[in-house]
């Protein structure tokens, strides 16, 4: 099946996306103890501009006086990664971020595999750990930010729309099967993309 010639696949995808009331990420936020290092990573290495610095003197969640800065680093769709840094002594140290990507990670999307490699090189040059992973339906590199948060940079592979739309057709049945105990892997795409 060629996606470019299969207008029904594209139309189905467009209609599904269009009908979703949730239009995208607004932001994802975590605490940091070092906004300078965080900025150096997100703005300096990943080239996400700092577009918001909100300085606050009141903890709106705990309803107590506090002092913190809240910074937003902008992604190309207008969403952002947000970070809080509290004044020393205002709170305990931030909770450690999970070091296992199966526990938590965020993934930033880019257009092409070349762009994944572009950022892999920049991360390498910055001295941060980086690892490429071929998921079959997407191609990614993984690193850690200065807070220990695992950050993935992903792109769909050249025939990714076709793969994702095939998966969308069977996603419910595949889940039901797995929950019922079927353990047959269904990712036949890993290793198939020329890297
Ligand atoms: Fe991921």
Automatic annotation (TrEMBL):
InterPro entries cross-referenced by the UniProt entry: Glyas_Bleomycin-R_OHBP_Dase, Glyas_Fos-R_dOase_dom, VOC_core
One Pfam family this sequence matches: Glyoxalase
Domain VOC intervals: 24-156
Record's signal peptide: none
Protein name as catalogued: VOC domain-containing protein
